[in-house]
Amino acid sequence: MTQRKIVVVDTTLRDGEQTAGVVFSNHEKLRIAKLLDELGVHQIEAGIPVMGGDEQEAVRAICKAGLKASIMGWNRPVIRDIEASLACGVDAVAISISTSDIHIKYKLKATREWVLENLVRAVEFAKKEGLYVSANAEDASRSDMDFLIQFARAAKEAGADRLRYCDTVGIMEPFTTYERIKTLIEATGIDVEMHMHNDFGLATANTLAGVRAGANYVGVTVIGLGERAGNAALEEVVMGLKYLYGIDLNFKTEMFRELAEYVSRASGRPLPVCKPIVGSNMFRHESGIHADGALKHPGTYEAFQPEEVGLERQIVIGKHSGTAALRAKFAEYGIHLTKHQAEELLPAVRAAAVDLKRSLFDKELMYIYEDFFGKRGHVG
Ligand code: MN
């Protein structure tokens, strides 16, 4: 596993912006693309060129920015979509069409044969133009496996470079994901990209399950932005690959927090404190046992170092604090409490936190100290 070459495809600018209520300005799109490129992302799905207007201009600007990453445009299996992508200067296209019967019958009002014909025509056209091609099987997870295999073979024969396995409604779980991806790869030998949605909170788990089954491409978005509950989060998948599978992509992961904050602001989606990998609570310890452990050796209560993702370790003083944390906190202010003093102070600290229903600020701790010991302390 550790020798696997995994390619990261970020679709923050396409699926991420498709999130209901999210619009990036072109300036923001270019900035996000540059940050993704600097981070180490291999391919950036930049938008949908056939939409024209600002969308097309943004894709064109990203193509001209001289990034190392491959730039991909999203397309229906329609020649004029691909022509619009070409006009923007992308080197890669995603050609997307539904493969599930429910989509084919109710959305496309077509047949499986129609799907295959349109896919092949579009892929052949794009390949003739020298583009890298991902054949996207929309709603792959609800597609009949035999037809999905037929679709993958047709895509491969037409020249497609990979298949994007889309869990469009986010209904996969890791064990079924593993089985289906393994079956698909064994039957066709095609390269597979995982594109998983998070409706049941399993997008990252399913992405990793797909990698274990042999998928070499992972489709992600910053902070998991995307349709409905979003996509697999870039930062979760990259850190998961590194720490759970031992696959180090050598990304500049110390940029994760900064990138998350930027995309959060640009999308108007607040970053939850408990967000995996980049949330501000990731390296905050309050409970006495945890804070004591983390102070003695961070590895006791942390999966990796905060600096690795651009965060800092914080010991928070509150209801669950113990004497070790209290002594460490006061030492930051230059006050060295004895163990006995810390024990004396602790009940007052806990009572204040219960009253306020939160952890305490530095100043509040200092007031408690002053009230208790009758002398002034200085913060800082
Ligand atoms: Mn999607």
Integer average pLDDT: 95
Rounded radius of gyration (Å): 25 Å
Main CATH class of the largest domain: Alpha Beta
Give start-end ranges of low-pLDDT stretches.
Answer: none
Kindly report the spatial arrangement of strands forming the biggest sheet. 1-2-3-4-5-6-7-8
Q: What share of the residues does DSSP label as strand, in percent?
A: 5-15%
Number of helices: 15
Main structural class: alpha/beta
At the fold tier of CATH, the topology name of the largest domain is TIM Barrel
The sequence of SSEs as H and E is: EHHEHEHEHHEHEHEHEHHEHEHHH
Query: What spatial form do the alpha-carbon principal axes imply?
Result: elongated
Number of DSSP strands?
A: 10
CATH arch. level architecture of the largest domain = Alpha-Beta Barrel
Q: What descriptive keywords fit this protein?
A:
380 residues, alpha/beta, TIM Barrel, H-NS DNA Binding Protein, eight-stranded parallel beta barrel, two-stranded parallel ribbon, 15 helices, binds manganese (II) ion
Quick take:
Helices cover 46% and strands 13% of the residues. The protein is of the alpha/beta class and 380 residues long.
